[in-house]
Specification:
- The chain is built from 12 helices and 18 strands.
- It has helices at 13-22, 70-78, 92-95, 103-109, 116-119, 152-158, 192-203, 227-241, 251-262, 281-291, 331-337, 345-358; strands spanning 7-9, 26-29, 42-45, 52-56, 61-65, 82-83, 126-132, 138-142, 167-174, 176-177, 181-188, 209-215, 218-225, 246-249, 273-278, 295-299, 304-309, 323-328.
- β7 and β8 form a beta hairpin.
- The longest helix is centred in the middle third of the chain and has 15 residues, at 227-241.
- This is Glycolate oxidase FAD binding subunit.
C-alpha cells in the first residue's frame, strides 16, 4: 500500500542526490498520472526537474529533464512538424487521475501506443538516460545519436523498470517527422478469431501499416505518408480484403480514433477492472474465449489487448497462455492479485540481482513489482 501522507519534492539533481542519500524508502512520482503498482514509502516528486535542455530538429534529437510534461514536448515537436513516434498513452481518464504525464514517467513505464506495431516501443527511441541510483550516485548512460551504442542496454533497462532501479533526471530521445497525411480504414470484423485473422494477414503484407486494432466489431488500420502512396496501398488492401472498407482521411478524423485506442477510452468511466494482456496474436482469441470479458480492445494486431472484467476477477487463473498486468482495480484487489505478472524463477533471480546492484537498500518503489 502506498503511504502518501508525506511528499518530498526536488528541484535539481543535486537535491535528488541528497534526498536519496539521507532518506528512503521512496515512492517515485513524476506527474502522478501513470503509476499502477503499489509501493511503500514517502513520495519523492521529480516534477521540479523540468525543461527541454537540447532540441535539434535537424538530427531528430531531443533531451529533456525527467519531470518535463509530455504536453510541452508534444507542442515543441509539433512546431517543427515532428513527434514522438511511439505515441505514449495518456491513461488519466482510465485511471481517474488528474496529474500531468511527464517524459520520465513515460520512459519508466516504457509506455507505447498503437504505432509500436510499426516503429517499436518507447525504449527503442531512448538514446541516453541520466539517473540517480540507490546509493545516491549519478549515472549517465548512452548518447544523443542512435549510432552511439555505448551502454545502450542500460538505457533500455531503465525503460520499463517502473522506477525500481533508479530515479531518472534526464532522457535523450530520437523523434520522428510528421507524415504528409494519414488515413484510417474501417473494416467489419465480427469476432476475435476473424479480427485477428484479418489483422495478421494485412500486417504480413508490405503495406507499412502504423496501426492495427479491433474494437466494437470493427477492424481499423492506419496508414501514414504521401497521399499518392497511401492511395496505391489502399487499392492493394481493398483487393486483398474483398469486403467493405470505409476510409477516413486526415488528422482531424484519424487522431481521435487512435487516441481512443491508445488511451483505452471505451473503458473510461465504465465499472470493472481493466487488465492489459500480451500474447502471440494467434493465441489472442483463445485467451478472450477463456476469460470471457465484458469487453475487449485489440491493439498491435492482437499482440496486446485490454480486457474489461468484473471487479475482483483474476484473469490469470482463466487464461491458458500469455502475460497479464492489472492496470485498474481497487488497492485491495491489487494487493490480493498483484499488479504485475509473476516472473519465472530465472527471471526473478535476474531482476533481484539488478535491484541489488542499483538499489541495494530497497529505497525505490519498494514492493512495486513483487
Amino acid at each position: 500500500m502506498s503511504i502518501l501522507a508525506k511528499k518530498k519534492a526536488v528541484e535539481s539533481e543535486a537535491d535528488l542526490v541528497e534526498a536519496i542519500r539521507e532518506g528512503g524508502p521512496f515512492v517515485i512520482e513524476g506527474g502522478g498520472s501513470r503509476r499502477i503498482g503499489l509501493a511503500e514509502g514517502e513520495v519523492l516528486s521529480t516534477r521540479g526537474l523540468s525543461g527541454v535542455t537540447l532540441y535539434e530538429p535537424g538530427t531528430l534529437t531531443l533531451v529533456a529533464q525527467a519531470g518535463t510534461p509530455v504536453s510541452e514536448i508534444d507542442a515543441l515537436l509539433a512546431a517543427e512538424n515532428q513527434r514522438l513516434a511511439f505515441e505514449p498513452p495518456d491513461l488519466r481518464g482510465l485511471l481517474g487521475r488528474a496529474g500531468e504525464s511527464t517524459i520520465g514517467g513515460v520512459v519508466a513505464a516504457n509506455a507505447s501506443g498503437p504505432r509500436r506495431v510499426a516503429v517499436g516501443a518507447c525504449r527503442d527511441f531512448c538514446l541516453g538516460v541520466r539517473f540517480v541510483d540507490g546509493r545516491g550516485q549519478v549515472v549517465k548512460n548512452g548518447g544523443r545519436v542512435m549510432k552511439n551504442v555505448t551502454g545502450l542496454d542500460l538505457v533500455k533497462l531503465m525503460a520499463g523498470s517502473h522506477g525500481t532501479l533508479g530515479v531518472m533526471t534526464e532522457v535523450s530521445l530520437k523523434v520522428q517527422p510528421l507524415p504528409e497525411t494519414v488515413v484510417t480504414l474501417g473494416v467489419p470484423g465480427g469476432d476475435a478469431v476473424e479480427a485477428v485473422a484479418i489483422m495478421s494477414d494485412m500486417l504480413g503484407q508490405p503495406y507499412d501499416l502504423t496501426g492495427a486494432a479491433w474494437q466494437g466489431g470493427r477492424v481499423m488500420f492506419r496508414l501514414e505518408g504521401f497521399e499518392t502512396s497511401l492511395r496505391y496501398r489502399i487499392g492493394l488492401m481493398r483487393a486483398r480484403l474483398r469486403r467493405d472498407v470505409v476510409e477516413h482521411w486526415g488528422t482531424e478524423i484519424c487522431d481521435p480514433i487512435w487516441r481512443g485506442i491508445r488511451d483505452v477510452a471505451p473503458f473510461q468511466d465504465v465499472p470493472g477492472d481493466v487488465w492489459r494482456m500480451s500474447v502471440k496474436p494467434s493465441d489472442a482469441a483463445d485467451v478472450v474465449h477463456a476469460v470471457a470479458p465484458a469487453d475487449v480492445i485489440f491493439d498491435w494486431g492482437g499482440n496486446r489487448f485490454w480486457l474489461l472484467v468484473a471487479e475482483g476477477t483474476d484473469v490469470r487463473v482463466k487464461m491458458p497462455i500469455g502475460h497479464a498486468t492489472l492496470v485498474r482495480a481497487s488497492n485491495e484487489t491489487k494487493r490480493r492479485l498483484s499488479v504485475f505478472h509473476p516472473q519465472n524463477a530465472a527471471l526473478e533471480r535476474i531482476s533481484a540481482g539488478l535491484r541489488r546492484k542499483f538499489d541495494p537498500e530497497g529505497k525505490f518503489n519498494r514492493g512495486m513489482m513483487g
